[in-house]
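I would like you to sit down with the record closing this message with an eye to the fold:
=====
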Amino acid sequence: MSVETMSTLKISRTIRAGRQAVWDAWTRPEHVKKWSCPAPGGVRSFESDLRVGGAYTLAMEVEGTRYTAFGEYREIDAPRRLVYTWDWREEDHRVGETLITVVFEQQGEATLVTLTHEGFAAAEARDSHDQGWTACLEHFARLFA
């Protein structure tokens, strides 16, 4: 396993909706609150200043444990690509600043969403986030079912 593979996860999912609708569901707070937590209904709040340099905070609860993700938007190319940093506020969950790139590719009447989350210092952190993102993308796809 290369160092890049060890520090990066990549997940793709085809969503049965147009790219603009998928982009909106990924970026608008009223939609993010419905899917962006591995446990159903676990999002407590989502605040976002969707502009380059703007910040976001996503508070959730999973199996009785609170998690607060936060970061800064680095690149916004609506509705094609979104790049932002990611870490946890709680000291016992911190992974250090990582980078998320989400690409939205129109494929006929569907959209291929590819999430790349990179910069993990340890394979355990990458694997834990892989499980979390996989569950979140399942919730995300259900928005369009």
Summary: The radius of gyration is 14 Å. The beta strands are 8-15, 43-48, 55-62, 65-77, 81-88, 98-107, 110-118. The chain is about 30% helix and 45% strand. The chain has a mean pLDDT of 93.
